[in-house]
C-alpha cells in the first residue's frame, strides 16, 4: 500500500509546442515541485500512477489526440481517487467551445481549465492546490482502509459472540453499537472536512483571480475618470459614466466573491437599513426576474444600527435569491425594515433592535428542514445550484453584530427570515473627503506634493500617474522596489510614496520597511487588489484598495500628508531646542 507520505507528487507536463513545457517545469521546480515532460498522450497514460500528483496539458496537445488510453485509466480509478488534470487553454479558445470542453471533462473527469496568458503565481497556486487535493485523496484512502480494518475486526468479534453467555452478549452488542456510531460520526466529520477543503481551494483561486480583475479595473476606471474630465460632448459623458458604472459593478462583484469565499474583518459603522436596501433595489429586481414581485416597506424614521454595509447587502441578496428559488412559478417577496423591542431571550439580549424582514410566498420548509436551515453545507437545492452556506453566513454575521437571525416557515405557506440588529445612538458617518477629514487637511489636500509611485504594472502605473498629475502633484514613476529605494538614496525630495503590494523580488510591505529605514517620517500608502494582506504586515501602513477612484485617492493622500505634517509639528513642539 502506498501511503501519503511516500508520494512525491510529481507533475506530468504535456506541452509539445515551443518552450512551454521547459518553462512550466522550471517554474514548478522553483516552488519545490518536480515534473516529467512527456512527448505525447501515450507517454502520459503510461506514467499515470501513485507517484504522480497531477498532469498539466495544453489545449493544442489534446485537440486531435486520442484520449482513449487516458480515459480508460480514469475510468479504472478506485472510488477514492479523482486524479486532477490541468488544461492550459488559449484566450478565446477552449472556454468558448462548449463541445470541446465537455469532451475533455467526460474523458478526463477532474479537469481544471486555466486560460493563458496567466500570472506565474496563479499557475503555481493551481498546481499546488491540485497536488494538495491528490494528497488528501490518498489520506482518504488510508482512512477508508482503516475503517475496513475496524469493520473486519468487528466481524471477527461478532463471530465469537455466539459462544458468549447471554449477559456477555448484551454487553458486546452495546459496545458494537458504540463503535458503529463512532464510525458514522467519523464519516460525517470527513465529509464536512472535504467540503471545507473544497471551499478553501475555491477561496484561494478566487482570491488570485479577483486580484487580477481588480488590477484591470483599476486601469479602466482611472483612464475613464480622466477621459470624463476632458469630454465636452454630453453624449460622450453619458457613455463614459455608463462605462464607469459597469467598472464599479465589476469591482463590487469581485468584493462579493471574496466575501463569499474568504473570512474578512467587518467594517462596522452606523447604518440606516432602509437607505441601504433602497440602494439595492435595482440589483434585487434584476436578481429575481419578471415572474417575482418585489414589495418594499422601508420607512425613514427607523433608528440606526452598527453593521458592515457590504455584508448586510450580501445577506439581503442571499435571502432574496433563496426566496426566488423557492417560487419557481413566480410569487411575491416582501422586504421590510422596522424598529422593535425585545425582552431578554435565548438568542437576544433585552433592548431595542432594528429588524430587517424578507418573506416570500414560496413552498416553505417542513420542521425538520427548518431546524437544519442554518447548518453549514446544508441545502435543499439540486447539486450544483447551491453551496448551503448562505444562511449559515447570515447567521454568523448576525452573531458577530450582537444580533440574531430568526426563521419561520411552514410547508406550503412560504418562509420569513428576520435579521435583528441592535440600535445604536451613534450618528451616520460622513463620507471621508479631503475637505471634511479635518480643518487642517484642506491645505495638504490641495498643496502640490512630490509623490513616488511604485508599480510593476505599466497600465496601472501610467493611469495612476495621470490621475496624480491631474490633481496637481509631481510624480516620480518607477516600476520596482529597487528603483524606488534608489530614488530615496539619491536624496530626491519625496513627500509621499504610493506602492503596489504584489511586485516581483520585493513586495510593497518589504519596500515600505526599507523606505522607513531610509526616511523614518515618509508617509506611505500601499495599493492592493487583494482582499487580505499576509500575516505579519504592519497594519500602521494605510491601504488603498484597488480599484479606487480619484476622489478616494484625494482623500487618502490628504490623510497621509496631514498625518505627516501633524507628526512633524508634534516633534518640533516636543524638541528641547523648540
TrEMBL record:
Keywords: Coiled coil, Kinase, Phosphoprotein, Transferase. Its EC number is 2.7.13.3. PROSITE patterns: HIS_KIN, RESPONSE_REGULATORY. Residues 208-425 form the Histidine kinase domain. The modification 4-aspartylphosphate is found at residue 500. The keyword Transferase applies. It catalyses: ATP + protein L-histidine = ADP + protein N-phospho-L-histidine. Residues 450-561 form the Response regulatory domain. It holds the Pfam family Response_reg. Residues 140-199 form a coiled coil. GO terms for molecular function: phosphorelay sensor kinase activity. PANTHER family: HISTIDINE KINASE, SENSOR HISTIDINE KINASE. This is histidine kinase.
